Every structure is written in structure tokens, then in C-alpha cells.
Here is the input.
Amino acid sequence: MGKAHPRAGAGRALTENGKSTAGRVCVGAIAGSFGVRGEVRLKSFCAEPAAIAEYAPLATEDGTHSFSLTITRPIKGGFAARLSGVATKEQADALRGTRLYAERDRLPALPDDEYYHADLIGLEVLDTGGKALGRVRAVLNHGAGDLLEVAGPGLKDTVLVPFTRAIVPTVDLMAGRVIVDPPEGLFPS
Here is the structure.
């Protein structure tokens, strides 16, 4: 299978923040203030973390605020950055937890067989016989490759499906579905 991309850029990656909002894709979040001069701690969800600056202006989830972005330096777990309109530590602290979204058309096009997480989340999951198994709730990566988290009726818990060509032979974004050929016992009978 191809790769699942977090929110932006190229390479493998994560999940839940990857939800799309009206033509926008979550590319990062503000973790709080950095220093006393209005800089923020920025977490990038991009495969190439510094690429987040290329997708500006970035907007809040509700679209009410938009920011230009300047990365000032790398720090542990992300970047120190300046956002337009944020001049004090208090303003930066007030933005803690804010997710930042880029317009989808500002993101790079992906090669065939590669997908943004936002495009996979919510897709219907069918087995090779056409039986509905659930929907993709999230795309996870704990270091050994991408996993589709599938939730649905009849499932006591979510099921983690390895996102490989052998197990997920078909991703049909137009039809809103993925076809899986899970190993025996992965889904209840």
C-alpha cells in the first residue's frame, strides 16, 4: 500500500489531528508560549516539520483567526515561532491547544498510492466479500508503519488494521471506501 501522510508534506505519519475542515487540513497545533516576548511553542504535524511555514497563512479550526507564521528556531518537541497578531506571553498562552489549518490547495500533491490522513478518516471499511466492517476512525503510526483504526457496529473495541498493500489492497477515495483483506481473527466472525 502507499503511505498515509499526516496532515501535510511527504512521508509517513500520525492521525486524529488529520481531520479536514471545509477544504482545510490540520497541519499543526500551538502547545503554549515560548519565552516572554509572544513566541509560541509550535507542534508541526507535517512529514517535513519545518514545511508548516510554507503553508501559511494558517487558520484556527473555526476559521475566525488567521496567522502568518515565522519559525524562529527549533526547540524540543517542535519549534519556537512568531504568529502575526501575537505580541505577548499572555496572548501566546491563550492560544494553547489551538489547532492550525492550511488550505488544502497549498499542500503538495501526493504521488499515487499515498494519502493524507484526513482523506482516509471516515472512509467505509469493507472486506473482500463486500461485508461492511466499520469506518476508519483514525490513522496511527507507532513507529512500525501506519495502522487504520476501524470502529463500527458489532465491534466491541476498535480494530487496528496494518495499512499495507497486502491487507488494504484498495483505497477508493471517490467511492468513500477501503477494501481490506484482514488476517484471520483480526475482526470478529
